[in-house]
Amino acid sequence: MSSEKTYVEDVDRNLYDFRYGYNEEDYYQVDAGLTPEIVEQISTEKNDPEWMRKFRLESLKTYQKIRIPDWGPSIDGLEMDNIITYIKPKGKMSADWEDVPEEIKDTFERLGIPKAERESLAGVGAQYDSELVYHNVREEVAAMGVVYTDLESAMHGPYAEMIEKHFMKLVPPSDHKFAALHGAVWSGGSFVYVPPGVTVEIPLQSYFRLNAPGAGQFEHTLIIVDEGANLHFIEGCSAPKYNIANLHAGCVELFVGKNAKLRYSTIENWSKNMYNLNTKRAIVEEGGVMEWVSGSFGSHVSYLYPMTILKGDRSRMEYTGITFAGEGQNLDTGMKVVHTGKNTTSAVNAKSISKSGGISTFRSAVVVNKDATGAKSAVDCSSLMLDDQSQSDTIPAMDVRTKDAQIGHEAKIGKISDDAVFYLMSRGISEEDARAMIVSGFADNVSKELPLEYAVEMNNLIRLEMKGSIG
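The structure assignment produced for this chain is given below.
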């Protein structure tokens, strides 16, 4: 499944660049705030192997030359010179919850992390600011050969060569400015390897907490699901609110082998001073399946477009997502899929909610290679606006280079029915609860795809958003 070259070189460069990719015009802006000395210091702190130290420094050179994207929401309030790129919490990573520093443990216990692990997870990783503070996997899962550990430790173990061959091959630093920044200062994150034919019956989860004001979080998640294997991975994110900007520029790279299946679920509850500029990408081999389930709440500005390369014949992708934009939020989300194999299939069901002047934009890009005969893609976007001050836009883009393809796009925008609210109120439900119930029903396609406790969390977030109580 691996190669020395960048994986995106396997697809037509022009197709890959479509809409979100690297462009020569993005180059030649020199930023001086982040220095080689700072990057060297992070590399030393992380005990990087030599190849990673060099990789960071090359990424820094790329970062200093690339311009900030100018096609999405404004990120003028993000002063990169003021962002702290590395914060080391007290204590070292532990596999025993009782060894986690008390103040950090209290934070995660309020978020329900230990309880979720005991009841419904095969393993848990918890990151606090720039470092993982806890990582554990059930013995019966480890006995099947499943590897779930922090990425930094894995670079010095038996999987070091595998990591070197895969790290930032799907998301090269040249992809965009914040991918280059990530390559230079990344810290924390998880490495998962599922051996051929192994099915992990219950999910693994990583939880990221950015707790420091004015800081950035740059975790890297690398998951390899080998031939015929099956995994569900859940990612949770949160941060308290501060009066200065915070930045999340993580990176997720997913490799789905022949006839393998990976479901990647995300519930993001960032505070509304957060700039969420995350990059997620998957490549799927012959007969493989990639499923994205996404719930995006919080953050001041989001740029989030999970991308899937359907490389192998008969591979398929499904994306199910919901975004909730409230007051002061501009959430620019969506997905991208590149069909390169024959008889590949992609299906998208995206929903967005906006209230109190929030702006929700859904961008989709469906690219079909000239050799991807028999490709099928269906994109369905629904938006719900809860007042007259909010905004919702759908921006579809399709580049189809074969006549033998079936491609469709549908978009709907609506408001809450006064009749439905009246009906619920006539049954003794308050107007506030009635509206929250209707919105929760609108989001049902996402919540039903999540394990019960995460569906409950998402519905609680919707209720809090409806009341204007988040961040």
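Interim note for the steering committee: Residues 1-5, 9-24, 26-32 have pLDDT under 50 and may be disordered. The longest strand covers residues 375-385.
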